[in-house]
Specification:
Layout lengths: L7 H9 L3 E5 L6 E5 L4 E6 L5 H14 L8 E4 L3 E5 L8 H16 L15 E4 L2 E4 L6 H19 L5 H17 L7 E3 L8 E3 L5 E3 L5 E3 L1 H11 L4 H11 L10 H16 L4 H12 L5
Antiparallel strand pairs: 1-2, 2-3, 3-5, 4-5, 6-7, 8-11, 9-10
Helix pairs in contact: 3-7, 4-5, 4-8, 5-9, 6-8, 8-9
């Protein structure tokens, strides 16, 4: 059978070697599939070149740190990925504190360079549906501007979602990044797309993270992403992080700087509705504030 003709259940059976007994939304992605013996798995299809490989290598790289838990990858090829299904429960303050501790340990596991992809991962990767290039760089401010802000800024202007005068505000941030970035930090092992939808609160009281855009980056970027779209018990997560690995002074002030990347991705993917929030983050980054 040609892989393009498979549904999620057929892909799960082929990749795990086990018969499928039930499937929910088998034409969707991700789909929930039950294997013989009652094992529930999630099956995800990725048609973009390298998308599945980027996600699989990202999950394994994050999991190898032995810090934040990730779903186990049970099988994959270039188009399909099968992972364990995580039974979810209610967000809990105690779990949030543990998550903060674990996230600090994940970041401390490090990366070879800013922009480094996970071992075996493609250079041309993705954040959500947007292309994301993992090209190593020597210093964070220069790398962040070149590979995480300016490409999406150009895309937003070309699509008509940001005006040229508005883009100039973001360009000023890039010019001032060396002075705005705070103290130098070593490359951290980032999830890379750590919004609330990619945080699973397990029924067992442990947090898992899914759908990574993993790469070497600045640890404040993951924390800024959690703050951008909200996260249950965020104060407990951040307090747990600070307890385990205190952040440099001014980290709250720098959140908008780190949020420019995901906000610009949203402007490119979803249009001008995210333009004003992007500009507010840029203007905030240019304004000296106290915590």
């Amino acid at each position: 059978m040609v892989n393009g003709d498979e549904d999620a259940g057929q892909a799960a059976s082929r990749l795990t070697g086990r018969r499928v007994t039930a499937a929910r939304a088998p034409s969707g992605s991700p789909a929930e599939v039950t294997l013989e013996g009652g094992t529930a798995v999630m099956v995800k299809r990725g048609d973009a070149p390298g998308a599945v490989r980027a996600e699989v290598t990202g999950l394994r790289w994050l999991g190898a740190a032995g810090a934040v838990r990730v779903p186990a990858v049970l099988g994959h090829d270039e188009r399909w990925m099968v992972t364990e299904r995580v039974p979810t429960g209610q967000p809990d303050g105690v779990a949030a504190t543990r998550f903060g501790h674990a996230l600090a340990a994940l970041h401390a596991a490090g990366a070879p360079a800013f922009g480094a992809p996970p071992p075996g991962g493609p250079e041309e990767a993705y954040i959500g549906l947007a292309p994301m290039r993992n090209a190593p760089g020597g210093d964070w401010p220069g790398w962040y501007a070149e590979h995480r802000v300016l490409p999406y800024l150009r895309g937003a202007v070309d699509a008509g979602n940001l005006r040229t005068a508005e883009a100039a505000v973001v360009e000023r941030v890039c010019e001032r990044l060396p002075e705005l970035a705070g103290p130098a930090e070593p490359p951290a092992r980032l999830h890379g797309d750590l919004w609330n939808g990619n945080v699973l609160w397990g029924a067992d009281g442990e947090v898992r993270i899914i759908d990574p855009a993993a790469h070497g980056g600045h640890r404040e970027t993951d924390l800024a992403m959690l703050q951008l779209f909200g996260c249950p018990h965020l104060d407990r997560v951040l307090a747990g992080y600070q307890e385990a690995a205190p952040l440099a002074d001014g980290w709250r002030r720098r959140a908008g700087l780190h949020q420019l990347f995901p906000l610009l991705v949203h402007v490119v993917l979803f249009g001008r509705g995210y333009a004003e929030r992007t500009l507010a983050a840029a203007r905030g980054a240019l304004t000296e504030r106290t915590e």
